[in-house]
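[Meeting: bench + compute handoff]

Bench side (C.D.) handed over the final construct sequence. Compute side (W.E.) agreed to return the predicted structure before the next meeting so the bench team could plan truncations. Sequence as handed over:
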Amino acid sequence: MLEGVSPWWWVVAAGLCEVVYAVVMPQTQGFTRLWPSLFTLAFIAASMYCLSLAMRGLPVGTAYAVWVGIGACGTALVGVCFLGESRDVGRLLGIGLIVVGIVLVKLSHR
């Protein structure tokens, strides 16, 4: 079942799980609240599992860089779009540069 899935899809899944746990983590209040903590831990585990599957078919550096980029950009965009965080030009430009970096890493992979 999992054998035919491209490692790139696993990196994307891992990055999306990272976004979920990063956004929910403040609700744990330092992991003192049970349900948000369990939810966060479940998505941390899912992210690591998906990343490990991606690393079966991608070099470690490539998989890790793309995973971190998806997580960072995704979390920042959720903050901007849904949590009222700053939309200043510098912040948006920085997110855009990370996206460009992810694309370049993907395009340079052989």
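W.E. noted at the follow-up: DSSP finds four helices and no strands in the chain. C.D. will use this when planning the next construct.
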